[in-house]
Amino acid sequence: MKKVYINSIASISPQKTFDNTIFLDEIIDYNDTVIFVQDPDYKQYIPPAAARRMAKGIKMGVVASKIAMDEAGIETVDAIITGTGMGCMIDSEKFVSAIIDNNEQYLTPTSFIQSTHNTVAGQIALGMECKAYNFTYVHSAISFEAALLDAKMQLENAEATHILVGGVEELGEHTTKVHRVINHIKPEAVTISEVLNSKTKGAVFSEGTNFFVISNQRRESCYAELVAIETFNTLQKDRVSEAIEAFLKENNLKADDIDVVVFGNNGDVDFDGFYNQLSKGIFSKTQQVFYKHLVGENNTVSAFGVWLASKILKTQSIAEIVKINKINPSKIKTVLCYNQYRGQNHSLVLLKKC
Amino acid sequence: MNKGVAITGMGIISAIGNNVAENYDALINEKKGITRVDHIETIQREEIMVGEIKFTNDELIAQLNLSPENNYSRTAMLGVIAAKEAIADAGINDIKKFKTGIVSGTSVGGMDMTEKYYYQYLTEKEPQKYIESHHAGDSTQKIAEQLGIEESLVTTISTACSSAANAIMLGARLIKSGKLDRVVVGGADCLSKFTINGFKTLMILSDTYNTPFDENRKGLNLGEAAAFLVLESDEVIKAENKKVLAYVKGYGNANDAFHQTASSDNGDGATLAMEKALKVAGIKPSEIDYINAHGTATGNNDLSEGRAILRIFGNEMPEFSSTKAFTGHTLAAAGAIEAVYSVLALQNNVIFPNLNFKTPMKEFSMIPQTELKKKELNTVLSNSFGFGGNCSAVIFSKEA
Prior knowledge:
By secondary structure, chain A is an alpha/beta fold. Chain A has eleven helices and 14 strands.
């Protein structure tokens, strides 16, 4: 089996992460319940006329994929695999509301065409003229991890050399309203320093995208080795530590071998316990970091966790703003990411320094 | 030849039957399931024909013994019915005995409930339970729960009308790589106003029975269905002394990279997908005995797919047919129901007819198999193509 490497990264998030030369040097504070991305200069990457026709998710996805391709220094890939939990919400909402508002009359196809979950992956392929394998995973909080796992299997078996993998999520206005109604969104605005201790239900919702070129060749630009991925549709709270230890054991590791653990805490009082028990438990002596206070919560935001882990491994530095505790490891060799959403769809991603 | 992945069980519900036996009976007796739509209130009713499953949601809830508080979308309920049949067919009593996952394809997901309660969600308490069943992964999550699959790999693919074919592909890869011992693969999609009106705006819905590969084809009939296959590793087959129904022998996915919704004139993506599938199977085109074509009966698909098939098979064209005239185009589920039909074809050495065909297309001289035909079959190729240029081909075989 071949080893698999993360050779490039790209992130468009509520922080200024689209520039790979910096690493959370400047933090943008928010005081809100829904946050949007810091836009890169889309014109640099796509003609304005084309950009106008694209919903936010498509635009972000296409641009992030280009940033990742540029950094990896490659022109094409052997597969494009994306994850999106909610898909193209903006066009879906446009089409559903048009159906209802106009009683199924006077409809035009554009929003229907672009509402399909695989629109982003299809548009990237179209733009790159890439006729390769093209998949889209749509399974809530593990959508990105499923894409990553698919890519990893193909690379390990040498069915592909370079694969573009990404997660993308856009916000639909109506969907946001609807999620407020069922308390999945925080009742009151919180600043980034308050999120973790907000003691309220729900999360700060967000949009964003993260793309990676992963390969079975280590390139100059390499960030990390992608060692293992595991997802769980269900996992009871009291089973999490055990599941993580079993996962680490399969990779010949113990909890103590992890230099940095990346948690998906989003400040939801009902579900942060999944992480807190590990903070106090098997990872109490491990440097813990989190990121959702900076970039919010969405179905593929765990890809930002992988982005953060990749950055940490490559730069061997950890921004203070993401630290939960202060262990400050001198060398960072192994990083584990753990995420879940509302107690379901748990994921573990294990990375090593390359 | 490369070794295939064993299929040990299958389940299906479609417009032509509520289980595998009923579907087979309809296929060999030319009983199509295309009617006017009864369970969705739509102003398009008199203008379209659909492949609808004639159970109401309440009847499905009763069949599945769900509590009145349940928040199952129709997609989820259809999926559970088909997946349960597949598990029973595979003789699985203890789902936890081996590492078992599920990969499902869907495009509609919970849209049926979203379009029903879109504005009510904001004001009425009762329908709010369905908010969480909108996302595409929800139906799969519920199928897993109903099957008792826990702490495992459960995921969903949405690549439009090739979704279920791609779910089969990922499942085969998961077994081959040893990630899972057993995986339930397939797809589910229910009819919705969203898709009815979406395809209507694209002007590719037929107002009468769809006629795949016919010169005068007028478009597709939408359908709803769910189907699942159980794939198991060689170790499980051996340990359990399992009967194998057929094998997933080859698979390929490629992108047409031509247009968001239309297929390229020459079917580049489709050609590539079939080539890859043949390569994975390690067989030559001449070894394919029957093609279950995507054949949606749209002007664009049948021409593009026909040309792609010609490019691969040339003068060695095996019999081919589209079963869409029976079931309608069941979108994300199509690859799964046609996988079941491909396995049935292998098991019974029979080629299902391409109904409603009269006039050959003027662009080429391809004539589909229009009558039921007995023929010794060893390998069947099944095509599924979707929006976003997504093209998939899966090869099923009798022998490993």
